[in-house]
Amino acid sequence: MDVHNAFLHGDLDEEVYMKPPPGFQGGKPDYSLFTLTQGAINLSVLVYVDDLIISGNDTSAIVDFKSYLGQCFHMKDLGILKYFLGIEVARSPEGIFLCQRKYTLDIIAEADLLGARPAGSHIEQNHTLAVADDDLFHDLEMYRRLVGRLIYLSFTRPDLAYTVHILAQFMQAPRQTHWEAAMRTV
Asked: Is the dihedral of CA 36, 37, 43, 46 positive or negative?
């Protein structure tokens, strides 16, 4: 679900205290996750700015909750979750699949590698990236942005996690060698 015009109501002159809808509990480790348990009914609501994911084990409870929210806010029901924060969601009888195809293509396009051949591996086997003696990479912001995007991509591509973890260690002073390893990962 999407709250219309959420940003038009962003600046307030007074302090505002909010509480979750009746029956919902806020998540301790994640303040954007709210849960409701009433008997056998379980609902979960994940909030990110003006977007909501509503999930549960009772369809009629979900419909009732959406109706309640619709009375409180001007909202649009986007239907079954297909895309959220750059992550594509697909359901099948085997389960739920998460993918970042568009996000990946955006990274490849930004790196100007759309026609490039894929590397066989993300990092050469037995290659150790260290504080190199070569020149500092000329654009720290570009390196940091690329590695940050790769970190987000690793949420759905755990095969990238080790390489990205290594690349992230050099955010402060990346060298040309580190940039080349990041581009190989792309």
From this structure: positive
- Contacts of residue 65, Cβ cutoff 8 Å, sequence gap at least 6: 21, 36, 43, 45, 54, 56
Residues in contact with 27: Cβ distance below 8 Å, sequence separation at least 6, in sequence order: 33, 34, 35
CB atoms within 10 A of CB 2: 13
Instruction: Give residue-wise pLDDT tens across range 80-139.
Output: 899 988 899 999 999 999 999 999 999 999 888 888 888 776 776 666 666 667 788 888
Measured between alpha carbons, how far is 1 from 66 in angstroms, rounded to an integer? 8
pLDDT digits (tens, 9 = 90+) for 137-148: 888 899 899 999
